[in-house]
Amino acid sequence: MNRLSLLRVIGICTAIVLALHAGMQFYADLVRPNFRASDLFSGEIPPEKAGLAAGGVLASVSLDGDLLANYAAARAADVLHRPSTDAAGRASENKAAQAAVVAALKISPIRPALWLTLGTLQAQAGEVVTPAVKMSYLTGSVPIDVAFARVRTVTSSAAATDEEIKLLAQSDIRAALANRSRYEPLLIAAYVQATPQGKALLLDTTKITDPKFNEILRRY
């Protein structure tokens, strides 16, 4: 094969690769779930299973961080909001959702809400949540709804025994107290469901930040 023929082959192969890439990007835009990890904690409804199936086909071969993160968040929301009716099914769905989240985080790790999504799935499965929750703090800021969800996860799990997480969680609790009219009943519910260490974290933080609310918590 002479040099000119070789160049032609290389050019054709390059064109095919670029065309395939453009086609995959176009398909990704069509099937990408319009659902982010932060939506999971703000009450948004996850996509239907048909939409998840379409996104899952491409997510299995994609390196698009946004596609993988959105698909993983939607998969997790489906597990958390529409769980299987039997224990074996719930465990299998949870494991698959965790795998989707981990795959997304390997490609695009700077996603604090997605790290919390992983921790939430692990909490549902009775697994250790501390590393995932800690990463949710260390990878960036989050909206208030996500911050409160993180408070609930921390105070109801062994994460409340980790000294670093306890310090970081205080900022989430203060953010919720700054919107006390909205979050007061939710904070009370979190306190009632908290572990002894979680209760102590809420009491210690509110004692300094909002003594009146601290007195309310002590009644429960």
Q: What is this structure, in a nutshell?
A:
The protein has twelve helices and no strands. It has 220 residues and is an all-alpha fold.
- Strand fraction equals under 5%
* pLDDT < 50 stretches: none
Tell me the overall shape. Answer: elongated
Number of strands: 0
Give a short account of the largest sheet: none
Order of helices and strands: HHHHHHHHHHHH
The total of helices stands at 12
Helix content: over 70%
**Distance between the terminal alpha carbons, to the nearest Å?**
83 Å
Structural description of this entry:
It is built from twelve helices and no strands. The protein has 220 residues and is mainly α. Helix 4 runs antiparallel to helix 5 (87-107), helix 6 (112-124) runs parallel beside helix 8 (144-155) and helix 8 (144-155) packs across helix 9 (163-178). The longest helix has 29 residues, at 3-31. The termini are far apart. The model has no long low-confidence stretch (mean pLDDT 84).
Blueprint of the fold:
Blueprint: H1 3-31, H2 37-40, H3 49-59, H4 65-81, H5 87-107, H6 112-124, H7 130-138, H8 144-155, H9 163-178, H10 180-193, H11 196-209, H12 211-217
Helix pairs in contact: 1-3, 3-4, 4-5, 4-6, 5-6, 6-7, 6-8, 7-9, 8-9, 8-10, 9-11, 11-12
Note the main attributes of this structure:
220 residues; mainly alpha; 12 helices
